[in-house]
Design goal:
The chain is mostly beta strands. Helices cover about 0% and strands about 60% of the residues. It has no helices and 11 strands. The strands form 3 sheets. Strands 5, 6, 7, 10 and 11 form a 5-stranded antiparallel beta sheet that branches.
């Protein structure tokens, strides 16, 4: 239903992502359905590192068939790697079902 394209770049030293490292995530709607995009978040463990619900950054809040949304968060301090996860929060407009699309970044 979706094509997922995660990417990260930066410097990783002894378990820490260094300031200036970035984490991006693009999703493409491959279905015939329309989805509401309400929020994007970058988490490190249980801590929210970055978050946006600004529709201008989230495909105007709607993901039509064949459309994509892409966002990047850049960290401004060295952070331990407690499991960086990028999450998009979506809703199927036709059913009201809410769900998440996420990617966990690793070093592999």
């Amino acid at each position: 239903m979706f094509t997922l394209s995660p990417h990260n770049s930066g410097v990783y030293i002894q378990g820490y992502w260094q300031a200036g490292s970035s984490f991006s995530f693009s999703i493409t709607n491959n279905s015939d359905l329309v989805f509401k995009v309400s929020k994007a978040e970058l988490k490190n463990g249980s801590n929210i590192i970055g978050s946006s619900s600004d529709k201008s950054f989230l495909s105007d809040g709607s993901l039509e068939p064949s459309e994509s949304v892409s966002l990047k968060f850049t960290i401004n301090m060295d952070l331990p790697d407690n499991g960086f996860v990028f999450i998009y929060y979506l809703e199927d407009i036709s059913t009201g079902e809410r769900f998440e699309i996420q990617h966990e970044y690793g070093l592999w």
